[in-house]
Design goal:
The protein is of the alpha/beta class. It has two helices and four strands; from the N terminus they run ββαβαβ. A four-stranded mixed beta sheet has the order 3-2-1-4.
Length: 91
Amino acid sequence: MYVLNGTAYLVTSEPENVPGRKYMTSTSRPIANEPEEVAARLPTDKEMRIISPEEARQLFGTGANRVEGVTVRRRRRRLRLFYLISFVHRH
């Protein structure tokens, strides 16, 4: 997983095994039940993108830094998607 300019990038070669974004994150808008408010909470590419290892190399290069204190757990049968953890800030 990478984070760049507030967007989380999940890297996987098996995108079909990744749950939909709406099950993992939201836009952090206040909770209200009107249809337009529910729709406004759905995450977009601004909040999270699911990308291939090739796309990750194009965006972030081949280097990464592990963030101290962050844990990623792998589940054999569910998700095999997190290759590394990196926080990248570009200006």
